[in-house]
Structures are given as C-alpha cells and as structure tokens.
Amino acid sequence: MQFRRLCVVIGVIPAALGCYSYAPLDTSVGVQAGEHIAVEITDRGRAELSDRLGSGVVRLEGTLARTDSVDLVMNVWRVAQIGGPSSRWSGESVRFKREYASRVQTRVLNRGKTYLVAGAAAAGLVVFTKSFGLFGYASGDGDNGEEPPPGQSSRGWWY
After folding, report:
1. What is the pLDDT of residues 24-80, one digit of tens each?
2. Which of 74, 63, 81 is nearest to 97 (CA)?
3. 32 by DSSP, 3-state: which?
4. Does the predicted model carry a pTM greater than 0.85?
5. Residue 70 near residue 98, CB atoms below 8 Å
6. Which of 102, 123, 127 is nearest to 24 (CA)?
7. Phi/psi at 131 (nearest 5 deg)?
8. In what order do the strands lie in the sheet with 36-41?
C-alpha cells in the first residue's frame, strides 16, 4: 500500500507544482504585498545596487513586501547575473528605487501548460502501474504455467 501511495505522490507532484509564466504588472495601482514578482534592473540600477546585490545583476525574483511612489521593497529569493547563473537567496529584504526597474512582472499560472503536465503525469502513472501490475493488471499474456480448471460435467457432481 505504501508503494502505491508513493507512485501517486510521484505522479501528482509535477501537476501540483504547475507551470508559471510572468505577465506585466502595473505597480502604480494597488499591488498586493506577498505577490510573486520579477524585476528587470536598468543599467543605472545595476551600478547603484552592485554593492548590495553584486555586479552585473540583471533580474530579481521574489515576493513584494511593500511599494510606494518612490521605492519597491521585495524579499528576494533569486538573483540573475549578466552572462552567469542565477543564485538563490533566502528572502532577504531589498529596497530600491522604482526607476531602477525597467520592467516589473507578476507570476501567473499558465493553465494550458499545467493541464499538459498533469495529463502527462497521469498517463505516466497509468503506464507505470499497469506495467508492474500494481492495481491487479497483468503485464504478461496471462499464461502463468498452471493448468486450467477441469470443465463442468452435465451429469452432476456425483458422476
């Protein structure tokens, strides 16, 4: 029974994670704190933020903590550098001027990709369970080496 649960969990995890994409976000209107955002940094912003974020920062990802007419404050969990890999952060709070952001985007669920991943995971789980006979399905031709039961006689059991 534990193995079956493990198979279900392995099949469901990719679907639960979903597929996300980023869409433009207008920060001049009421943006909710805690919203997942990605901010692309301008050249001037790279120069001004290099002492706090490292040289060559091109994009920040995290959750929006606060915004006002001058600044954005976000809890950063990923920093992408020019020509290099992105580094993971643990949610440190970073404040910077809005003018340092060339584009602000919000993370949204892409339903089409999510349904595709969920369908593929379900199909993979069905194939996996059938191939190992986990739910009573046999993978062979049904010949298990035993003789078939004797046929029924029409004369009754006493003959």
Report:
1. 777 666 667 888 999 999 999 999 999 999 889 999 999 999 888 889 899 999 999
2. 74
3. coil
4. no
5. yes
6. 102
7. -70, -30
8. 20-24, 101-109, 36-41, 57-67, 71-81, 86-97
